[in-house]
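Last lecture ended with a question: if I hand you only a sequence, what can you say about the shape of the protein? Today we answer it with a concrete record. The protein is 2-hydroxyacid dehydrogenase. Below, first the input exactly as provided, then the predicted structure, then a couple of comments.
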Amino acid sequence: MPQPDLLVLSAIRPDQMRQLDAAYTLHRLDLAADPASFLAEVAPSVRAAVTTGGRGITAAEIAALPALEIVATSSVGTDAIDLTACAARGIHVTNTPDVLTDDVADIALGMILMTRRRLVEGHEYVRSGTWAQKGPFALTSALRGKRVGILGLGRIGQAIAERCLPFGLQVGYSARSEKPVDFEFFETPQALAQWSDIFVVATPGGAGTQALVSQDVIEAIGPQGTLINIARGSVVDEAALIAALKDGRLGSAGLDVFASEPGPDKALTDLDTVTLSPHHASGTVETRDAMAQLVVDNLAAHFAGEALLTPVG
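The predicted structure:
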């Protein structure tokens, strides 16, 4: 029996790529010298596509694949996948939730520590010899008793909240609906921002959350406040963020994601009040392997006629 044809738009982990190579006829669009010509040549036979959150798959690519049955992405976010085009054709979409929750929540808490206690600046203060030249480092702000507002209390948001409690932080949240939790609920992002000392963005990306963290929300966090974003760069109005940081209307920011990746706006990255991470919150060997295995397992379930493990929608 012939192996199903699978289009690779973006490669996943090596072991899982070997599993795919053994089970399918792979067409490596990600390695093609002329992607348009390559896609036109292999498109009629392609029944499945593998991608990642940063790459996704466009409506035009979906339209070019008449036999496409399933798109499996090694990511939780699906904002780079044209879900409308998939739905119109009855194409299944799977993602990789749950397995990256702990790592992303860990990075959120790390960002809180780095920004509020200025750990990166302290590191450079020692390494550069400034400590010996100028004396003690400036005092920072304690975490205990501060208010952490979490925008989006899904799996990751709840994991962040759980990590905040042992540090003596108060937790509030805003979400599309109130959750059965003990944390204080705020109807709007702005109301949450006004309450917060530290504002953590943990909501999905996509058109529905574009610039949800607006200029008004950023200003409500305030000159002593901190914005942490481990969600998507699109959720924050980045121009408003840069302006607020420059003129002191926002105290500091810790960012794992940006409006432009992998080359963020230099006006943002040059600021001393920003702690930066290269969209790497889920970037551990264990988590990326687990995400890739979910891709493999979802495809196997589809072609075996079984229920998908993690369908989208």
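Comments.
1. The first strand starts at residue 5 and ends at 8.
2. The chain is about 35% helix and 15% strand.
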